[in-house]
Amino acid sequence: PNLRKVPQGDFMRPATRTRMSSHSKKTNGVGVQVEETRICVVMVGLPARGKSLIAQKVVRYLDWLSINAKCFNVGSYRRTATPQPAASFFDFSNTEGERLRKAAAEAAVNDMCQWFRSPGHLIAVLDATNSTKSRRRWIKERCDSEGIETLFVESKCDDEELIMANIKEVKTTSPDYVGQDPEEAAKDFRERIKMYERVYETLDEDEADMTYCKIIDVGSQVIINRIQDYLQSRVVYYLMNLHIKPRSIWISRHGESEYNLSGQIGGDADLSPRGAQYAKLLPGLVSKSAGDRPLTVWTSTLKRTAQTAHNLPYEKLSWKALDELDSGVCDGMTYAQIEAKYPQDFAARDEDKYNYRYLGGESYRDVVIRLEPIIMELERSENILIVTHQAVLRCIYAYFMGVSQEQSPWMEVPLHCLIKLTPHAYKTEEERMSADVPAVSTWREKGSKAEHAQTPGPSARASPMIGAMSK
Ligand code: ATP
Ligand code: F6P
């Protein structure tokens, strides 16, 4: 077989589409493509309403889907002139404060418009309070003049307790308050919010001509207006699924399989005796980490994940989307056999592992696309344990930890190791627990055709996987 590269942006050619905007002009004979749609997602809301968190999540999600996105945070532009302003800086009758804040917004919008001029730059998130109608109208007019669509996303929340918790969680450690007493910082930030409250105008019927999504009380109510095209609706659907309840996600590969022992890839083999031993130990490992929290277990439809999850005393769900990357004509072969029979393909896969698609099979890019509903469901859910396969686990891990497409297909994910991911505002915490059951290593270094090698007991291994905390 020849190297088969998946075209960039497969995700953006859905089978069904909603009405396209005037900027989505290019057609491919099948339907309208959305590559030319450029969208500015404009955050709206009082301080400490989760705008920056939402903005960063949207960018990470789009990046993971190979949609080029960037966040423009007006606060960081403002900080160059005014690094540590007191609350009075945000008083709207403070003319110097007003001037500096408008200048920061202008600088961010200018940079954003410049960024949009490069091909493939599709979605920018303009992260600021954008709390008045006049400010929003100005942004819309500026974007209109550049042929950029606008999608206003307002986070509205009046739960005083939640706002105070947000301030304590993220604001007292913000660069605005470096070196200051956290109590004083929280008090000052409360004052800052009051300044904004005096002039804040929520999105309403006066802005009925605008495309917007208003998220009230962390998604307990969502109002959407004039959503125009496929990409906008994807972003809005993603936003509707987000929640901020504390939870963890556990991920594990299946126990060692008979194919792992023989070095074969793919297939639907049973667990090896050591794999079965891991399946016996897994419930203990999970309960040590999760305590008595309610959990749901997701497996693939392949025997080795079902056998691994068999003893777990939780509700189980099996997903076809969690099946291992399909290695097509190479299914059941060892890496050495693939190299001997298809040397060009073997080299091509090493060259660009993320995009290489096995003949009759899949690439990592394909796997990410089929995992999109899994990510959406994970965002909606609370505590989930996923028992899946090497390539699939790499893709899920990459989403949560922000690992690049170049790195993620090469990450080492040992067998018989449970990974706990706990999302926090702005970072995901990672913890690894190894069961003391040896297993082969199925990791293959770039350029090698290594047989699956015996590894020392997992406890003896230093984890070479990427960082313990995501950005
Ligand atoms: P600022 O205007 O000062 O930049 P912000 O609105 O960007 O504030 P963030 O820094 O994103 O606020 O606040 C993060 C906090 O908001 C986290 O503690 C997070 O749990 C919480 N949060 C996330 N989403 C929401 C939401 N929809 N409503 C209220 N709080 C939220
Ligand atoms: O060897 C175990 C396995 O899950 C195979 O079934 C699969 O083809 C492979 O790992 C995916 O890893 P890589 O993409 O590194 O070949």
Automatic annotation (TrEMBL):
Region (Disordered): 444-471
Domain (6-phosphofructo-2-kinase) ranges: 32-246
PROSITE patterns recorded: PG_MUTASE
Gene3D superfamilies tied to this protein: P-loop containing nucleotide triphosphate hydrolases, Phosphoglycerate mutase-like
EC numbers: 3.1.3.46
Family: In the C-terminal section; belongs to the phosphoglycerate mutase family.
Alphabetical UniProt keywords: ATP-binding, Hydrolase, Nucleotide-binding
Amino acids binding substrate: 253-260, 304
Swiss-Prot/TrEMBL GO biological process terms: fructose 2,6-bisphosphate metabolic process; fructose metabolic process
Protein name: fructose-2,6-bisphosphate 2-phosphatase
GO cellular component: cytosol
Nucleotide-binding as UniProt keyword: yes
InterPro entries on file: 6Pfruct_kin, 6Phosfructo_kin, His_Pase_superF_clade-1, His_PPase_superfam, P-loop_NTPase, PG/BPGM_mutase_AS
Main EC class the enzyme belongs to: hydrolase
GO molecular function, one term: fructose-2,6-bisphosphate 2-phosphatase activity
